[in-house]
């Protein structure tokens, strides 16, 4: 296969997952066509509905195809009413993280034109990097004794896990500085004053920081840092933190820039990337045309950037840039979905972004 064709696995999942994945595919195809590249899709079942039918969270063929793909676009997984015997939800996205050792979640939070924030700020552009394979998720499969009196979870930080997390944080800061003109700064959020595991994480962060003299660094306690996400979000460039802390703080950051409907993400290792909106499956609005497709469309742009980097395909990077520009143009003037102050449907927003792409091509 030449560098103009790429294999993308689609995992639409549950609830609004299919709605937003379909929207993103329309936009990605339009942008790719403008750049002379083709995205070849394979779609596989995964999620709570699939679990109800089969007793498995994801199609076995889908797991294999993910590893053979150039990139993956995932919609949303899980339904609140569908639980495993231990009371937890069906989460194939976490299964895939563990299976393929996807150790970092990249979660950009950018204040987009036309999207209101409750804060008195004009410019927010931060990247929250959440560790995915250890931290408080490390003991997810630990056997636990049956008890009605207590239950515990294990928090583990390893040198290997922390070092690679910190390296990707500093590399992303360096990349953002070169491409976007951001400050080139990494902040670690931890609880090193109380938790020994986090004190160890801080030690390793400082060791990695010493290798990047061109990138600034800081360490803050998670409680103070979470407050400053609200009181002073403009101070942050790249933020890196433990698994559960990252899960929480990335959603705070998303809320600051308009909500989960405009928050893309990518779960990555050094070779594989799975890109997805940060929001959940929202089954109450599934199929009603109410879902905001922007987070998934911007996740599609991240996917194309990933392909550009890993496959040496500059046309894919141009397609990604075009998607972001078209999305920003539409958000600035409308239409927008109701979660960010508009009245438009999923399809209306999607079609407007495709139209903006086409008009940009005509006028270029």
Structure description:
- With 364 residues, this protein is of the alpha/beta class.
- The protein has two domains: 1-102 and 267-364, Isopropylmalate Dehydrogenase (3-Layer(aba) Sandwich), CATH 3.40.718; 117-257, Isopropylmalate Dehydrogenase, CATH 3.40.718.10.
- 43% of the residues lie in helices and 17% in strands.
- It has helices at 17-34, 48-54, 60-68, 92-100, 159-180, 196-209, 222-231, 243-256, 294-310, 314-333, 346-363; strands at 5-13, 38-43, 71-76, 104-110, 125-131, 185-190, 216-221, 238-241, 264-268, 273-277.
- The protein has a ten-stranded mixed β-sheet, with helices on both faces.
- The chain is globular.
- The two termini are 29 Å apart.
- Keywords: Manganese, Metal-binding, NAD, Oxidoreductase.
- Pfam families: Iso_dh.
- InterPro entries: ICDH/IPMDH (IPR050501), IsoPropMal-DH-like_dom (IPR024084).
- Its cofactor is Mg(2+); Mn(2+).
Helix content: 40-55%
Q: Tally of extended strands?
A: 10
Indicate the CATH class of the largest domain.
Answer: Alpha Beta
- Topology as a string of helices (H) and strands (E): EHEHHEHEEHEHEHEHEEHHH
Count of spatially separate domains: 2
Q: CATH H-level name of the largest domain... which superfamily?
A: Isopropylmalate Dehydrogenase
Structural class: alpha/beta
* Percent strand: 15-25%
Strand order of the largest sheet: 2-1-3-10-9-4-5-8-6-7
End-to-end Cα distance, whole Å, is 29 Å
Average pLDDT: 95
Write down the overall geometry: globular
The CATH architecture of the largest domain would be 3-Layer(aba) Sandwich
Pfam family, one: Iso_dh
Domain Isopropylmalate dehydrogenase-like: 7-353
Protein name: Isocitrate/isopropylmalate dehydrogenase family protein
Cofactor: Mg(2+); Mn(2+)
